[in-house]
Amino acid sequence: GAGPGRSARFSAPWRPTGAERPRRCWPCGGGCSVGHCHPLVVQAAHEQNQVLNTNSRYLHDNIVDYAQRLSETLPEKLCVFYFLNSGSEANDLALRLARQYTGHWDVVVLDHAYHGHLSSLIDISPYKFRGLDGQKEWVHVAPLPDTYRGPYREDHPNPAVAYASEVKRVVSSVQEKGRKIAAFFAESLPSVGGQIIPPAGYFPEVAEHVRRAGGVFVADEIQVGFGRVGKHFWAFQLQGEDFVPDIVTMGKSIGNGHPVACVATTQAVARAFEATGVEYFNTFGGSPVSCAVGLAVLDVLEKEQLQAHAACVGSFLMELLGQQKAKHPIIGDIRGVGLFVGVDLIKDKATRTPATEEADYLVSRLKENYILLSTDGPGRNVLKFKPPMCFSLDNAQHVVAKLDAILTDMEEKMRSCETLRLQPEAALLSPPLEKMKHPTQIHY
Amino acid sequence: MCELYSKQDTLALRRKHIGPSCKVLYAADPIKIVRAQRQYMFDEKGERYLDCINNVAHVGHCHPEVVKAALKQMEVLNTNSRFLHDNIVEYAKRLAATLPEQLSVCYFTNSGSEANDLALRLARQFRGHQDVITLDHAYHGHLSSLIEISPYKFRKGKDVKKEFVHVAPTPDIYRGKYRENHADPASAYADEVKKIIEEAQNRGRKIAAFIAESMQSCGGQIIPPAGYFQKVAEYVRGAGGVVIADEVQVGFGRVGKHFWSFQMHGKDFVPDIVTMGKPMGNGHPIACVVTTKEIAEAFSSSGMEYFNTYGGNPVSSAVGLAVLDVIENEDLQGNATRVGTYLTELLNRQKAKHTLIGDVRGVGLFVGIDLVKDRQKRTPATAEAQHVIYKMKENRVLLSADGPHRNVLKIKPPMCFTKEDAKFMVDQLDGVLTVLEEAIGAQTESVVPENTPCRTKPPGT
């Protein structure tokens, strides 16, 4: 069977019966962007599958066409592409590119970052290495620019500069030890870290410090690229018109579920990599089918105006959630941009202590209501919304209504005044239903 | 065929937008392939080529059953493995059934590289050891962790061998340290591994794994001698390490008689971890690591989840299942044995005829032709090999050359390759070699010792 290192998402198997047609959110980063099984994407894959699916050592139109289309979405400097199969492969290549270009070795990352499951990436993912082999000497961790729970919060006059100064401090201390920075690696919007929106201006400041030290800026767009943020195609573009990373990695939603990923970089970086004289060959990367799929996804994003749609539905969702925040003390913070939203659940307004057990319980109640949501953040208390881009206003309304009902129910049952605290016997993974009124019996 | 860009434009766009480290075949005259079916590829002019390179298109390019399986599943569901689904468990079951009983736990990934990286993680997590023994000229993938254990790569680049990596001589009985005239090359090569283990242990280092391609492809179509792996396994396990068999190039029945290449070595050789990829999905990005319950449990004991976004998704699993079905239904293993034997026979006749051919080695549809300038010295005929592959391309046969000296012609075609294809390929090769040898001239006569009985007529007479 499948290895025990993989956890099933929910503790008990669950499958809808034929009779039910549950409405479903799919906010967990499943890599589906334009909608599950989108017919245009399926058709593109099928048509190409029937004609040719081979490797990139032969010339083919799809790969060059796809590269060109991608280059049109990016700042001009980012015009050279490497195609791979997974975000993890992309981040590993980004590391190799950075090191080759700079001649340096060390990497600066954000706390709670997650960049992939490969050996090299566990090393640069505090989210992983803290539980495994520990921090390597060439990895340096800067504070996550979390203005809700980090050291510099919403009441700080200039959190972007403050957090960027932390990076500067890290870089300086690295240099004092005689070490050299190859790269600053960050998810444009840290997802696993809790749906964090770095303050505007942070990345440009950081880039300055890193480049001055001879390093490059790697923007990991694997979770958040392709129009999800609504206002822009790429999440790093939120950081300012003039901000251009040296390397951008993409994956997950790029192929609507088909294993595709990509690294975009500058000619300078690409040429330095070539100068090693060692070929880079990825057996499946850039295949005609993968590129046909990637192109189809770009087409659908455009045709169905999903970027604008994400902006629209995203702000509506935020509005609704904002109302919920006013109503339910357990909601400490709502943050988001486009269809990338986080709901930070807390036990106490003053301390902002993560409401971990409550979040877990809430998620299982939502599942009973046929809504799939997951949590993240170091406190596993942030509800993550990153649904397929076709998520509608109705879907948003429905989810929030259910959320409201369940939170109301939880508050009634838990009998807390200002904040929600689970009573000892209720603090179970899935409390028995007989202890709770069934959701359908709630009148609201 | 309707082209979006002319070949010139395609090439120009590629130079503009695709990383220059990504090389094309036949760099001096790249080939644009727009269509493929079975063992044939077609360029933009509609010219048909016999594909002797693409082991990835295992059951034949664009096999309709595989295409159909993908379509059927793509229309219904393609999501990640955190949800229960039948396809992944069915596929794991079918794969496990092809392997010895102990190898029963599967981890699905998207590429051989991801699989090998995970194999390393499994091996290291198992007992907390770190060091890896790899073979010279090995290639295990393009990821950082794998370049470290791939001399084929790190020797070429500016990378230096890491101290936790130990390189054993590749068990190449044609060009290696111990050759076909040695009494027991398997033991001799295995003893090299033993020596490495002892030296490492003396320095306080601990062996996590011995990793080897069951048959080295980039290393030059190397088939390790019988008994080698068993002895190595003994030494490695004695040191607390595990054996990783990299079947990424050579699995799924390519050797004909067995499903997995490591099985050629006998029932008493069972690796601890097997990695597979390339042919697995007939071109769809699928790969897998299969290991024992013990190793899997040690891995999960850290409490850290292993999640691969696309690995084991319903579409990939459906595709993998379809490939297994086709291998069975079309008796592709049987075909590999029959056609492979025939091909090797034909090539051995060519060897008798052409002094450029130093060695013909192979099993099933995994064959290598080692070209030499001098049969006694076995000097690799590197330039000649390049010339041959370009000439073969002109004759509409796609071949590649590899090995540390890039002088071994590699033949690992789709498994539907026929006897007619074999004959065609060899006829073209014969022609090309004949012309080449004539051009090289007197050299061909001088390397043949005077007292050698002449079995065939020398070229030109």
Summarize the structure.
By secondary structure, chain A is of the alpha/beta class.
Task: Summarize the structure in words.
The complex is a heterodimer of chains A (444) and B (461). Chain A has twelve helices and eleven strands. Chain A is globular and about 65 Å long. The longest helix of chain A has 22 residues, at 306-327. Helices cover 36% and strands 12% of the residues of chain A. The model of chain A is unreliable at 1-23, 25-30 and 421-444 (pLDDT under 50). Chain B has helices spanning 7-17, 64-74, 86-98, 112-127, 144-147, 151-154, 185-202, 228-238, 293-300, 314-329, 332-353, 382-394, 419-440, 443-446, and strands at residues 33-37, 40-43, 48-51, 105-109, 131-135, 165-168, 207-213, 242-246, 273-276, 287-291, 357-363, 366-374, 379-380, 397-398, 400-402, 408-411. In chain B, strand 2 and strand 3 form a beta hairpin. In chain B, the strands form three sheets. Chain B has a seven-stranded mixed beta sheet, sandwiched between helices. The model of chain B is unreliable at 454-461 (pLDDT under 50). Helix content of chain B is 38%, strand content 16%. Chain B is globular, with a radius of gyration of 23 Å. Chain B contains 14 helices and 16 strands. Chains A and B meet through helix 1, helix 2, strand 1, helix 3 and helix 8 of A and helix 1, strand 1, helix 2, helix 3 and strand 4 of B.
Secondary-structure map with pairings?
The complex is a heterodimer of chains A (444) and B (461).
Chain A: H1 39-51, H2 61-73, E1 80-84, H3 87-102, E2 106-110, H4 119-122, H5 126-129, E3 139-142, H6 159-176, E4 181-187, H7 202-212, E5 216-220, E6 247-250, E7 261-265, H8 267-274, H9 288-303, H10 306-327, E8 331-337, E9 340-345, H11 356-368, E10 374-376, E11 382-385, H12 393-414
Parallel strand pairs in A: 2-3, 2-4, 4-5, 5-6
Antiparallel strand pairs in A: 1-7, 6-7, 8-9, 9-11, 10-11
Chain B: H1 7-17, E1 33-37, E2 40-43, E3 48-51, H2 64-74, H3 86-98, E4 105-109, H4 112-127, E5 131-135, H5 144-147, H6 151-154, E6 165-168, H7 185-202, E7 207-213, H8 228-238, E8 242-246, E9 273-276, E10 287-291, H9 293-300, H10 314-329, H11 332-353, E11 357-363, E12 366-374, E13 379-380, H12 382-394, E14 397-398, E15 400-402, E16 408-411, H13 419-440, H14 443-446
Parallel strand pairs in B: 3-14, 5-6, 5-7, 7-8, 8-9
Antiparallel strand pairs in B: 1-2, 2-3, 4-10, 9-10, 11-12, 12-13, 12-16, 15-16
Helix pairs in contact in B: 2-10, 3-10, 4-9, 7-8, 11-13, 12-13
